[in-house]
UniProtKB/TrEMBL annotation:
Pfam families tied to this protein: Acyl-CoA_dh_1
Protein keywords: FAD, Flavoprotein, Oxidoreductase
Protein's name in the database: Acyl-CoA dehydrogenase/oxidase C-terminal domain-containing protein
Gene3D superfamilies: Acyl-CoA dehydrogenase/oxidase, N-terminal domain, Butyryl-CoA Dehydrogenase, subunit A, domain 3
Family to which this protein belongs: Belongs to the acyl-CoA dehydrogenase family.
Molecular functions per Gene Ontology: acyl-CoA dehydrogenase activity; flavin adenine dinucleotide binding
Keyword NADP: no
InterPro entries tied to this protein: AcylCo_DH-like_C, AcylCo_DH/oxidase_C, AcylCoA_DH/ox_N_sf, AcylCoA_DH/oxidase_NM_dom_sf
Record carries keyword DNA damage: no
Cofactors demanded by this protein: FAD
Residues in Acyl-CoA dehydrogenase/oxidase C-terminal domain copies: 184-294
Length: 317
């Protein structure tokens, strides 16, 4: 699809409608709805069953997923479908016949992998193997639940002894997947923050104190303005990360990714604070977004990423 009139935000609107339609459905039903709307193949070439769009179209799609609190491995489906484009498994993932999760820590050689979400429902799981990665038949390995970060949608640890490999990725292909992952997960986190900000704005506008809405208070306005600024900064950083620099070289994504994660956590926590005591209740959905972002934070060791960025900055000075 090479029509220059296509706009990423238009796809975000369509994706939002599909995600809303999938809300409340089972894992299999969500898969069918999202596949029918073409979301898994957005960044897969047309000749390989996808829409043939670049990563700039993926950003707003996963952002709206974060904003609407989609509890489904949409990013993983997009990543594995793109990495295995042209193969039967890739085509099955694009079409929704198969699903894949990704374990971001551990490796096949170590015999275990961790920080995998939704893997209990997936057909395959991608784990590091050497410099590349291996796609494993999930049923051939032992899965252990880890609910410490999210009891509703836990992460999993996988024991990989005897696990069956069904496809492999080269070091180059795995590096590309990880680059795309940081862009898309950063966008998902930014969307989660944006959703929390919108909820806080609605609450502040409807909550009246001493005859005036809380949104009329200067301190609240300043906080909301900062939340909005950080949201826009996250999106701008991610869009910049996927564009070539002035010398035609690819940019590093780590700064934009770490910024998006940190900004999102700040925004969601401020939204909880702005809701007062009710912000800390289980019934208010803000905690869902915070746990989603914290799981990404832990899976990618964002603190370690920030330290590496700082060391590189100091060394270059």
């Amino acid at each position: 699809m090479s029509d220059d009139s296509l706009r990423p935000e238009d796809f975000a609107e369509a994706a939002g409608a599909a995600i809303t339609d999938a809300e409340g459905k089972s894992f299999a039903e969500k898969t069918a709805v999202l596949a029918e709307n073409g979301l898994f193949g957005v960044i897969v070439a047309e000749e390989q069953g996808g829409l043939g769009l670049d990563l700039s179209f993926g950003i707003p799609i996963v952002a709206v997923a974060g904003k609407l609190q989609l509890r489904y491995p949409l990013v993983e489906q997009m990543l594995v479908a793109s990495a295995l484009a042209g193969e039967d498994i890739g085509a099955a993932i694009v079409g929704g016949e198969k699903t894949a999760a990704i374990a971001w820590q551990g490796s096949l050689e170590e015999g275990y992998a961790t920080h995998a979400t939704f893997v209990a429902d997936a057909d395959y799981v991608l784990v590091a193997s050497g410099e590349g990665a291996a796609l494993l038949d999930r049923a051939s390995g032992e899965v252990q639940e880890d609910p410490s970060l999210d009891p509703d949608y836990p992460q999993y640890t996988l024991k990989l002894e005897g696990a069956a490999t069904v496809a492999t990725l080269s070091a180059e292909a795995f590096a590309k997947l990880k680059f795309k992952a940081k862009v898309l997960y950063g966008a998902f986190a930014a969307g989660a923050g944006e959703g929390a900000m919108d909820r806080a704005a609605s609450h502040m506008a409807g909550r009246v104190q001493f005859g005036r809405p809380l949104s009329a208070k200067q301190a609240v306005r300043h906080t909301m303005a900062r939340m909005k600024l950080l949201t826009e900064t996250s999106y701008a950083g991610l869009q910049r990360a996927i564009a070539q620099d002035e010398f035609g070289a690819a940019r590093d994504v780590d700064t934009a990714f770490a910024g998006a994660i940190g900004n999102s956590c700040f925004i969601i926590e401020k939204a909880i604070h702005l809701h007062g005591g009710m912000g800390f209740t289980w019934e208010l959905p803000l905690h869902c977004s915070l746990r989603d972002v914290r799981k990404i934070d832990a899976a990618f060791n964002t603190g370690g990423v920030v330290k590496s960025i700082g060391k590189a900055f100091i060394a270059a000075a």
